[in-house]
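Hi R.,

Here's the chain you asked about this morning:
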Amino acid sequence: MRTASTRGCAWGFAVGALLMASAADVAAATESRGSTEATAIVLSTGLAAVLWPVRRAPRWLTVPLRTAVPAVASAAYTLASISMGRHAPFGPGEVLVLLCLLFVAVRHCPPRWALACAVLDGAALLATPVRLFGVTAEETQALMLAGLVLVGLTAGLAGYLRSLDYRRAVAVTETRRSERLAIAADLHDFVAHHVTGILVQTQVARMMAADRPGELDPVLSTIERAATEALASMRRTVGVLRDTGTEPGGRRPAGDLAGIGELIDGFAVPGQRVTLRRDPAVPDDLPHEVQAAAFRVVQEALTNVRRHAADATEVTVDLRCDGRRLHVAVTDNGRGGTQLPDAARGGGFGLVGLKERVSALNGDLRCGARPEHGWNVRAVFPLRLP
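And here is the predicted structure, written out as tokens:
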């Protein structure tokens, strides 16, 4: 909430500064007997392009169009003032609008349009000093040089942020791909478990067919149930495997509710207490996918405690059931202290893959800071999968 409030205040301050600068441009054009109407049109076009909410913009208002049209208007105003030999001042409002549009063009335009729109915005900004008649060539060159510095800094910052966005997108994609490969490995484990049970029960049925045919029905019922669960596991898991990829480098165990206890036993360090609170109402025969996902939630949460909150003295793992859903919660009282080097803290993408796994089971995953201090990870799974 604090972050959202801070961003809102910063956005409001930036909008206010932009509007005040634009008003100064109009006032300067009026005082110098320039074309107030043309100045207002250029500024209105630019302000609309910068301030129009992206989510409410019509489909035809694309990013290239938003960044190109105001630059064309500014350049046309400059050409008109030169051709007519009239003084046409510019001010901080137009400069800020063009810099904002340059930033948007470099960071958000599609690759094939980014360069063209950025050049158009930068050229329109650099051409504005030409409108000033009655100033020396040295002053015009100084203004253009200052504009060139601003264009370079803005484009450089936008390009750097665009590269960060690209690297994060690649990292998220790779994380999801790795998680899907892990889910595929788990799918093999699920199906192998069920098929092995079918095989054993079939062997039992063949032996019973000769001397105890009347007792075959329970065995055949078990075979039918195991086959149904195997098919359901395949259907649910294959639904999220949209990327085949290559063979994974290693196999990970699926994990289950029993494995959570073993995981906790090997986690605590001196001065740290990890408590497992398991509601007796939690059944032992949950679907294997749910048990594996619950295991992964606890595993990832504990890993993040070790990476980002090694100073935590109390870590609690809660497993409870309300009759329809399994609730998994991991909380700690850490304050963010860790002795791990930065390279060992991870890139923050573990929760991305975990979200993929939980969503595949129609579950819900929520993470966030606790009111006092510490961190909280909660996951909810339906007990009956579709």
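One quick note: The first strand starts at residue 273 and ends at 278.

Cheers,
M.
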